[in-house]
Amino acid sequence: MAADTVHIVEDDPALRDSLAFLLEAAGFTVRLYETGMELLERLAMPAAGCILTDIRMPGIDGLELLRRLREARHAVPIVVMTGHGDVSLAVEAMKRGACDFIEKPFGDEVLLRALRTALSPGRTGIAADPAVQDFVHRVETLSERERQVLDRLVAGATSKEIGRALGISPRTVEIYRAKLMAKTQAASVQDLVRRAVLAGLA
Question: Residue 167 — φ and ψ, nearest 5°?
């Protein structure tokens, strides 16, 4: 099987077909699976390419699929698709061995970039990625309060919840959030969380 193969695990037929169309047009070889169990039954050992899986699926969800793949000693890179606000699930997926996660709805280029990185022959550990190292250095410039806000954002807390925990108003939380996003050069809160997770700060 080709090294540029993407194994797509997605229970939504429309999304599954849409992803297949996009990836095939971009030059990838695509294999489709409706469920995590189907992937486990059909995936050869050792597997070529990478896996793109949804996190929320009936039966075996993305987290359980990750666990079973790693237990079976599959070293194939795994990119996880998460729904909006699934920060805690994304963090857990990374801890279980996912190499990246992208949040729905995502742009075509975001997906293609994540898959190309996962399939890169010279792919190094996430910690060695210059972009991740740059983010870590930027986090080190945050004030103590900004870091407290960052930690809670990555944990999935809302501005109101962060405000209550830190004894400040939600508006003040928003100000700290704007400052830390500027310092880290994150494009959005979702981008900030993703970078923090990849850098092992979650």
Answer: 75, 30
Q: Which pair of structure tokens corresponds to residue 92?
A: 């857990």
Q: In this structure, what are the phi and psi dihedrals at residue 115, rounded to the nearest 5 degrees?
A: -70, -40
Give the span between the Cα atoms of 6 and 84, in whole angstroms.
23
* Tens-place pLDDT, residues 53-96: 999 888 888 899 999 988 888 888 999 998 766 777 777 888 78
Positive or negative: CA dihedral 21, 82, 105, 11: positive
Q: What is the pLDDT of residues 105-146, one digit of tens each?
A: 888 998 998 898 888 865 544 545 677 788 889 999 999 999
Strands of the chain (E only): list them. 5-9, 29-33, 50-54, 78-82, 100-103
CA 164 – CA 142 distance, rounded (Å):
21
Q: What CA–CA distance (Å, rounded) separates 30 from 49?
A: 10
Q: How far apart are CA 97 and CA 83, in angstroms?
A: 19
Listed in sequence order, the residues at least 6 apart from 160 whose beta carbon sits closer than 8 Å to its beta carbon are: 170
Token duo for residue 112:
């293609």
